[in-house]
Amino acid sequence: MTTPPIQNIAVIGLGTIGHSVAQVYAAAGCTVRCFDPDPTTGASLADRVRTNLKQMASAGLSSPDEIEHVVSRFVICDSEVEAVSGAEFVSEAAAEDLTIKQALFARLENHIDRDTILASNTSTYPMTQISRDMVHPDRALVTHPFNPPHLLPIIEVVPGKSTSEQTVSAAMALIEYTGKRP
Question: Quick check: pTM over 0.85?
Fold first, then answer.
């Protein structure tokens, strides 16, 4: 396996979409730092991903030998700040609520490096609205996976009005590296 173009990922929100997104990045060889406000959701991540991978292996979509390699790339964190520490790419999979997403993006921006990409999985809100309260909205975009992300290859990539071309290019390179089709 070659080295991913972005190696350090954070996933905030580990529900139906978030855990599957974390699986995609871990399967591609990335280290995935994970946080969910519900500690039981974070604690169950490895088991949920093992279940996904066993089902995929039984269908001939992956090898059973990969299961523990994928799960070993997860780091379960106690806070969103801990999860985004050192991340090059942050995938937000919070509740589909504009106010929650706006507050999360504005808050996370204070704890990440200037060149870290903030991506939302929203299927509803334009990034221009989500990034409204950010100081640097040029590093934010939507990367909306089709459900379930670990099985379906399509991801919509939608920049906001202020999203930089560099952000789009870097996100596209990462997504393509995972085997997904933007």
Answer: yes
